[in-house]
Specification:
Length: about 160
């Protein structure tokens, strides 16, 4: 897999496995807490474990000089309209590590994974909270993503 170059020379993007699973859970739990999402640690751990074992998902952490500084989750789905479509589900970089190209590297690694899976497109869903707090539409548009005008509606089954 090709990994884009960023501002951190020693940055590695590595898949989540049994050895770094607990760190990945901690990063996602912190992300959910900071963004105000419900995020029970045991549920995050169970879902993350299922994702990392499923070939239609990819979860990776960013490691910089021995320190875990970010995480990304990606899913691929099969659609009639798009064929195989990738979706970046979660993207988080520790606040103290932001502004150094880590999120861009995680997104590029996600795009590379999606391409390797045969995806024809990659989408990302942003929330109004994420937009207000982080200007996510500007961030993603600089990386080539464009709004589709579609609205996502959700029916919770639990």
């Amino acid at each position: 897999m090709t990994i884009a170059r960023g501002l951190y020379d020693g940055l590695e993007i590595i898949p989540v496995d049994a050895h770094n699973m607990e760190i990945a859970v901690s990063l996602l739990h912190r992300f959910f807490q900071e963004e105000g999402f419900s995020g029970d640690r045991s549920v995050i751990a169970a879902n993350l474990d299922r994702m990392r074992r499923d070939d239609n998902h990819w979860v990776a952490v960013a490691l910089n000089k021995g320190h875990f500084v970010g995480i990304v989750t990606v899913t691929s789905m099969l659609y009639i309209e798009w064929g195989r479509l990738g979706e970046i589900g979660d993207l988080y970089v520790l606040p103290e590590a932001r502004g150094n190209g880590i999120a861009r590297r995680l997104v590029q690694a996600s795009i590379d994974w999606c391409r390797d899976q045969g995806c024809n497109a990659v989408e990302v869903v942003t929330t109004p909270l994420g937009e207000a707090a982080h200007g996510l539409s500007n961030f993603y548009s600089r990386l080539g993503f464009a709004a589709t005008g579609r609205t996502i509606s959700l029916l919770r089954l639990d």
